């Protein structure tokens, strides 16, 4: 058979080239897909919630007695030192109805004395009854040992003796109460009788801490009741942050956990550490009307004071609790993963085709997952694959 000539070889080559070109033109064009690369990067798992700053050492200065106070000249924001006088107390000013007040106080003393005498009489009667019951119990025990009375009789006598002892204790408590009431009535009589015209300083309320005045509740001179709040003071340089956290998120937070504070008004991110987590959760209704179980997490700011100068009590901050972190973690975008029956999977671009691979995931932070197995550094994965992406499909990557 004669060998083909060069012209015949050229014709055959052109035919084959045309056939290949025709097949290529008939093939479906590659699908354009968005892709990203799997790689190592730092990762943090963070819980974010809004918190509120509070003074760590907060004190409310209130009047321990009913008294007249002098005018308070301090203003909110003023600095105070420990032991500095804050409020001057004077004896209450004499009432217009002094005579009637003394008569009422004297009558109160007489009534208290009568109640004390009555309580003492009841105590004497209870003592006599208790002594009699004790004697009867001793006699009954002797009769029971000689089998002259039954066990039931002994139990009845013992119960009566116990009741007599209880009545005696109650009567003695009544005497103590009546004695205290008498002392209180006598003190009230002395206050009315001896306090007229006394406007000297009786007591001075001093600052328990070096810090600043946080609020002034009462400024003008005048009468104040027992326990009435007058001033709030505290050390503004010692702040802590209280944050309401969902109970399921608080489960992963521990004392000593790292906290980052943002959106507090300054440019820098402040460092903090969790001090304690309250053990009791509370039910809170969210803005959407959903009931949530929330826990208070209290954290201390550990950044230098000059980094957060101007931050005060009651300020809003964004608390970012670091649950887990690592400086070098193999990560894949969350949008590249999709659910399969036994876990997660992703489409990897290999030789221009989509190849589905199962992926083992670990921690998640924002829009990225930690890769435990299934993907390697440098793999190109399809981000947000739709239903048209199938195994072996030709794709044209467009990497972000």
TrEMBL record:
One of its GO terms (molecular function) is efflux transmembrane transporter activity. Residues 329-395 form the YknX-like C-terminal permuted SH3-like domain. One of its GO terms (cellular component) is efflux pump complex. InterPro entries: MdtA-like_HH, RND_pump_MFP, YknX-like_C. Keywords: Coiled coil. The keyword RNA-binding does not apply. Pfam families: HH_MFP_RND, YknX_C. Residues 116-183 form the Multidrug resistance protein MdtA-like alpha-helical hairpin domain. Residues 102-136 form a coiled coil. NCBIfam families: RND_mfp (TIGR01730). This is Nickel and cobalt resistance protein CnrB. The gene is cnrB.
